[in-house]
Specification:
It is built from two helices and ten strands, in the order H-H-E-E-E-E-E-E-E-E-E-E. With 235 residues, the chain is an alpha+beta fold. The strands form three sheets. The chain has a five-stranded antiparallel sheet, with no helix packed on it. A three-stranded mixed sheet has the order 4-1-8, with no helix packed on it.
């Protein structure tokens, strides 16, 4: 009987110890779980990923674009010409006679010529100055000065003769029959308000190149420094 009671006491003690061990294990597991939760809430000490670091790094600065070579300094504009001295020029207008309007086209070329006055009234004097103009509209204002001289080595002064021509072929060395012409036999340099009128017709073809026939044949032309054709004005 006593042995039976002792056995039961041993069994009860073992059960109590087992129960206590189980409770201890459960407590340990619960404590470990809480520690894990706390660790999860703590900030991580792991540095950012390399990819994030690369993205945050500043981009390298591109090299500067090559600069074009310095351009040459622009050329200075030409100095304006000094105004013409009225005392060393002849100015005026060129008019077209109403009877000759049908002989002149707006596209024709006009030559204004100044010559020294020759001793022989039937000969042309030495060529001094030439100005090329357009027959687009009349009257045509003009100024003839040393700027228009063929060889600007001397002064544009004294007395000259003026001749004006509507030149159909645009060649100053050829004068064609039917060209409208006009002129003044004597003008003093410095004159202003001079009026030249185109009111005559060229009598026959001639060339200022010398005694040679015109292109395409024809009679020999007069020498511009010799005698003029009969009935031709000394222009």
């Amino acid at each position: 009987m006593a042995n039976h009671r002792l056995s039961r006491a041993h069994v009860s003690s073992g059960l109590v110890i087992s129960a206590l061990g189980a409770m201890a294990m459960l407590g340990a597991l619960a404590l470990a779980s809480c520690e894990k939760k706390d660790d999860a809430n703590k900030p991580s000490g792991i540095p950012p990923m390399a990819a994030n670091s690369a993205a945050a790094a500043p981009l390298p600065t591109p090299p500067p674009a090559p600069q074009p070579p310095p351009s040459a300094a622009p050329e200075a504009p030409p100095a304006p010409e000094a105004p013409v001295d009225p005392k060393a020029a002849i100015s005026g207008t060129i008019a077209l006679a109403s009877a000759r309007k049908g002989d002149v086209a707006p596209t024709d070329t006009i030559f204004l010529v100044a010559r020294r006055i020759a001793d022989n009234p039937n000969a042309r004097g030495t060529l001094v100055a030439v100005k090329r103009l357009s027959a687009a509209s009349f009257p045509i204002p003009f100024t003839l000065s040393a700027r228009d001289m063929m060889i600007p080595t001397g002064a544009f002064d004294g007395e000259v003769s003026l001749a004006v021509r509507v030149d159909k072929d645009g060649d100053p060395l050829t004068h064609l029959k039917g060209d409208v012409i006009g002129g003044i036999p004597k003008v003093k340099v410095g004159a202003r308000g001079v009026k030249l009128t185109l009111d005559q017709l060229q009598k026959q073809d001639e060339s200022l190149a010398g005694n040679a026939p015109m292109m395409g044949g024809g009679a020999p032309m007069a020498n511009p420094h010799g005698e003029l054709p009969a009935g031709h004005p000394p222009l």
